[in-house]
Amino acid sequence: MAIPDYQTAMLPTLRVLADGKPHGRAAVTEAVADHFGLSDAERRELLPSGKMTVIRSRVGWAVSYMKQAGLISAPRRGVYQITERGRQVLARKLERIDVALLEEFEEFKAFRARSRTAVQDSPLPGPALGPSADDTTPEEALEHAYQQLRREVEAELLDQVKAAPPSFFERLVVDLLLQMGYGGSRQEAGSVIGGTGDGGIDGIINEDRLGLDVVYIQAKRWTEAVGRPEIQKFAGALQGHRAKKGVFITTSSFSRDAEDYAARIDSRIVLIDGRRLARLMYDHNVGVSRRVSYEVKQVDSDYFGEE
């Protein structure tokens, strides 16, 4: 059974509350998941942000919309209870509760009108983040839009790296590792070797500010997949420096043979392909700058519950 969209979750959510007792958010979510027979993997599935499960998000929006329509009340934060109007709706023996049905109630129509006005008055361009055609929640729509923008930036980043000269790429990988917290400053922690006679090592970086251990770097600005022979050469170079740790970074990919070999040898070699490189650059602000940020907030029910 697929995870239900938030509109499909409305009727089962209201039925969970049919006994008239207060129910906590987690218990409601679990009961709805049981109703749809969700597997453990489906119950654990996260939104793109990784901060909340999909089923909790969708039940949350189902509750939020039914609260606006007066079918549910929240006697305290994170606790929900059916109202008399909610009981009347259940008594109609409906097959589904959705936004179209909630539009019967003036409170919900007023809420939707306020939401549309707020979007129209916003200085930001673009469509409203209301329910979309595929029934994703507004929160999910925002997260999916973010992921799409991120993928586009990462693809552009990788194109730029591939077009740069090899010497720039070698400096880039040291900069990235510094931004990831290895060593301290470039003067303290990282250096680029490169050039002929480098012994298969393109850079070195201290694993910590004291320089107690060193990580060796190999950087290949390639278009074809990196095979096992290249990893073997790098492993040999590490042995020549009496080193145990290395990072092999490429703009392309690694063959399965190369990955298997790196996983089996004694030396610890981390393989970073082009796609992972672009993700790390994005996450650690290398080659990118912040354009705009949005802060998503929710109502603090505790504040309004104070005496």
Structural features, described:
It is a single chain. The two termini are 45 Å apart. About 4% of the residues have low confidence. This protein has 14 helices and 8 strands. Strands 4-5-6-7-8 form a 5-stranded mixed β-sheet, sandwiched between helices. Strands 1-3-2 form a 3-stranded antiparallel β-sheet. With 307 residues, the chain is an alpha/beta fold.
Q: What is the share of helical residues? A: 40-55%
CA gyration radius, whole angstroms? 27 Å
Structural class: alpha/beta
The main sheet comes to:
5 strands, mixed
Q: What is the count of helical runs?
A: 14
β-strand number: 8
What's the SSE blueprint?
Blueprint: H1 10-16, E1 23-24, H2 25-35, H3 40-44, H4 54-68, E2 72-76, E3 79-82, H5 84-91, H6 99-102, H7 106-121, H8 138-163, H9 166-179, H10 186-189, E4 190-192, E5 203-206, E6 214-220, H11 228-240, E7 245-250, H12 256-264, E8 268-272, H13 274-283, H14 301-304
Parallel strand pairs: 6-7, 7-8
Antiparallel strand pairs: 1-3, 2-3, 4-5, 5-6
Helix pairs in contact: 2-4, 8-13, 11-12
